[in-house]
Specification:
Two copies of one chain form a homodimer. In chain A, helix 1 links the parallel strand 1 and strand 2. The longest helix of chain A has 27 residues. Chain A folds into two domains: 76 residues, Glutaredoxin (3-Layer(aba) Sandwich); 122 residues, Glutathione S-transferase Yfyf (Class Pi), Chain A, domain 2. Chain A contains seven helices and four strands, in the order E-H-E-H-E-E-H-H-H-H-H. Chains A and B meet through helix 3, helix 4 and helix 5 of A and helix 3, helix 4 and helix 5 of B.
């Protein structure tokens, strides 16, 4: 029995794991869970992942990993090449720091902007099993966070090819995915973000980033 | 030259690193940065950590790590015993998942509740160099998130001594620190949270958790 990857092609979150699987050439089966029809809430998927989210990764022994944090490190330990979480202590530290910044300063900004404004996400202002009402002011704040993060990232990428290390890391994967997804809140880097554009164009050449 | 740990005894964020340093018996010097007088914004500290935050850890070669994500993994790699980030792939995955949940479902709930309501934090609704106005509705949401997390954690700790693994991990450290800090928004586990209380009482016996 091989790894089973529960995916949904149009969602940003599973795309992060999808790119890691591809960069590491990890053999796996794909099970597409259609979020548009609410398949993630159905009994069948709930039995696999009670959190009702994608991505999920079912291991050969039946254990199911249910978030990107767990999936990324499990893949790194099990398929170490190429390393995406760093090799030296310092490299690992830089990657962990940038991964955290990308998640909290960028990803949460986009998520706040989307979830607190989109009529389709009424009462779904936070992910997970509990409902939360939308807060319009928080959507505004999310957009501001995205602008701030673009400025931070533009500076960081001056003279660098990758965000955290001298080679591709999970921080690049996460940031690239969130950047494509930021289209949903009409935020994209502008002409002034030359370093970001160079970095992004270069990642776009990699087959894994076209998935 | 030894490791220099930039700390502030009353703040929750540096306490996380302080406990890890103590659990691993890592030799280090402490430099106390007085956040009450704004010492973190002064020229001297800014030259060490341009982010003006604690914790920071200055390594022997002068490199400065400026957040808990980076500090935790650097310490784990450099002082592996006792392991706090796991040893097997699966243990590492579980710890990373729970660490992320504790950060986003609990820590951010407390931070939202505090930063969006406390008059002393007007315009400081998010940490970092940019100012953000407070959003009162977000303070309410933060309190709800904390309640939800207590319910999640109570279930998780049924029959378990630690949150993520069969031994202490960073997820326990982070959660314990946030739980003490949640007093600032008047949220504490109640009588119904028997598993949380047992877990917390047990951690309180460890000298590192009294720091």
């Amino acid at each position: 029995m091989s790894l089973k990857f529960y995916d949904f092609k149009m969602a940003p979150s599973p795309r992060r794991a999808r790119i890691i699987l591809a960069e590491k050439h990890v053999p796996h089966e794909v099970v597409e869970i259609d979020l548009r029809t609410g398949e993630q809430m159905g009994e069948a998927y709930r039995a696999t992942n009670p959190n009702c989210t994608v991505p999920a990764l079912k291991l050969e022994d039946g254990t199911v990993l249910t978030d990107n944090a767990g999936i990324a490190i499990w893949l790194e330990e099990t398929y170490p090449e190429p390393p995406l979480l760093g090799t030296t202590a310092l490299e690992k530290a830089e990657i962990a720091s940038w991964q955290f910044r990308v998640e909290t300063e960028f990803g949460m900004g986009v998520a706040s902007a989307l979830r607190n404004s989109n009529p389709a996400m009424k009462n779904r202002a936070l992910p997970g099993p509990h409902n939360f009402e939308q807060i319009p002011a928080l959507a505004e704040r999310g957009l501001q966070q995205v602008d701030n993060f673009f400025a931070t990232l533009e500076t960081r990428l001056g003279g660098r090819n990758f965000i955290a290390a001298d080679r591709l890391s999970v921080a690049d994967v996460t940031c690239f995915v969130f950047m494509d997804f930021a289209k949903v809140v009409r935020k994209q880097p502008g002409d002034e973000h030359v370093n970001i554009s160079r970095w992004r164009d270069s990642l776009r050449q990699r087959p894994a980033f076209r998935l």
